[in-house]
Specification:
By secondary structure, the chain is an alpha/beta fold. It has 13 helices and 21 strands. The strands form four sheets. Strands 8, 9, 10, 11, 12, 13, 14, 15, 16 and 17 form a ten-stranded mixed beta sheet that branches. Helix 7 packs parallel to helix 9. The chain is globular and about 70 Å long.
Length: about 450
């Protein structure tokens, strides 16, 4: 796609952006990129800590003389049209003349309320908070379509990047067997020293000469050996399952397993792994989403938490030519892996915003609750236990996330609606937290989730 031609500026139209949850992580990377994008202007950022917003804007290089802190609507109306506004109340963001609202808080109550209000006013919404989309995505897409607005996930995060790759495959008529991503951290093995490093920022390098015995892929036995060797590092990560939840709901692809497979693998092996068992792979069914841990040598590039699809090779001669170009194919030549080894966070998010604001692209009214992320008790949890989402991976202590097909959900409560919930009864180890175990009746996000289920 020629983006320069796609966004040729013929009428002076620009995106005017408001960001909620702007100062750290994803929001920071977007703030840093916006000044480089000619068709985009930052109009307002929102955080409970307005002074921190001011400091971040100055650090990035925004003109301090144009920054105005506004406490209410009157202050907004009095500010210059070219001012960069800072507000502490997210309700004020949509009062600032924006065309694009970017939601980065990760707070389902705030982000769903802000998104609904904006969409009903015809303001486009770009959702970074995957937790919210996992439970409200279907209804938010529907509301956007009804109000001739755009509700979209964003490039820079794995779900939208994977959806783009998947849509490319659909356009070309490819048969997608599996779609997924690598988990956030790599396993890196130094063959010369035998030392393995897990790049999660917490683990220490460890002598592991045994990795040589399963370094080269020989089939599922290799995956089993790696899994056993690295067992203490391996876990099911809430953020990974949530991201695949989003992809599932738009594409109709279902979870490969409730915990996803998480094989430890190199990108060159993926076309041999994410294929049906009868062809030597690990899949019990096709048309699935899944996740792997990236394994690489010290001199090899990372997959960078990137995205992949595995497709069937339906024309033998054509794929023989492509194999000669070096593309990743299975040993039986029946499957190929196509991948994006990146997600650049806010650096590439302006693409999604411009596609939505200037081209009206991004909304998915066909989005449905194809899968639901549930929380399974890892131990007996007594009545009165307070469940809390916390940490880098937005996990809940005591709960193991599972990604379930809708038909298997029963009355399991959506994982990210459990934040702050108090157990009304004991929950035994191995059992899901259900809507009978907690009171979700006061949550507007739960009502939105139920409305989404009614869409079919």
């Amino acid at each position: 796609m020629d983006f320069t031609s796609l966004f040729t500026d013929k009428n002076g139209e620009k995106s005017k952006v408001g960001i909620i949850g702007a100062t750290r992580g994803y929001g920071y990377t977007l703030l840093a990129q916006i000044p480089k994008v000619k068709l985009m202007e930052l109009r307002v950022i929102c955080s409970r800590h307005t002074e921190e917003c001011l400091d971040v804007l100055k650090e990035i290089g925004y003109d301090e003389n144009k920054i105005v802190i506004c406490a209410d609507k009157a202050a907004i109306d009095a500010a210059p049209q070219d001012a960069i506004l800072v507000v502490g109340d997210y309700h004020l963001v949509q009062e600032c003349g924006i065309t694009a609202l970017v939601e980065c808080t990760g707070n389902t109550a705030v982000s769903s309320d802000a998104a609904l209000s904006a969409l009903r006013k015809g303001i486009n919404v770009y959702m970074v908070s995957k937790e919210t989309d996992s439970v409200c995505g279907p209804i938010l897409n529907q509301v956007a379509a009804e109000n001739h607005a755009v509700y979209a996930l964003v490039n820079g995060d794995q779900p939208r990047n994977l959806l783009d790759l998947y849509s490319w495959a659909m356009l070309l008529g490819l048969d997608v067997v599996a779609a997924g991503k690598s988990s956030e951290y790599d396993f890196v093995w130094d063959r010369e020293t035998g030392v393995l490093s897990y790049l999660d920022g917490n683990s220490q390098p460890e002598a592991m000469p045994e990795m040589l015995d399963c370094w080269y892929y020989e089939g599922n036995q290799t995956l089993e050996a790696r899994s056993k060797l690295l067992e203490k590092y391996r876990e099911t990560i809430s953020a990974d399952l949530c991201e695949m939840n989003l992809v599932s709901n738009v594409t109709g692809l279902v979870p490969a397993t409730p915990l996803l497979h998480y094989p430890v693998a190199k990108p060159s092996e993926l076309a041999n792994i994410f294929i049906p068992k009868e062809d030597g792979g690990i899949l019990e069914k096709t048309g699935v989403v899944d996740v792997f841990y990236n394994l690489r040598g010290t001199d090899e590039a990372s997959f960078c938490g990137g995205e992949f699809i595995v497709v069937r090779c339906e024309n033998e001669k054509m794929w023989e030519i492509l194999k000669g170009k070096g593309h990743v194919m299975s040993r039986n030549d029946k499957y190929a892996c196509i991948y994006y080894p990146y997600h650049f966070m806010g650096l590439e998010t302006p693409v999604s915003i411009l596609l939505g604001d200037l081209k009206g692209l991004g909304v998915h009214p066909e989005c449905r609750q194809v899968s639901v992320m549930a929380g399974i008790a890892q131990k007996d949890l007594p009545k009165g236990t307070v469940l809390k989402v916390e940490g880098h991976h937005h996990a809940i202590e005591g709960l193991l996330p599972e990604l379930l097909e809708r038909k298997a959900v029963g009355n399991a409560a959506p994982f990210y609606l459990l934040n702050g919930a108090v157990l009304l009864k004991d929950v035994k180890a191995g059992q899901p937290v259900t809507t009978d175990d907690v009171d979700l009746s006061g949550l507007n996000t739960y009502k939105l989730y139920l409305q989404g289920l009614e869409l079919g």
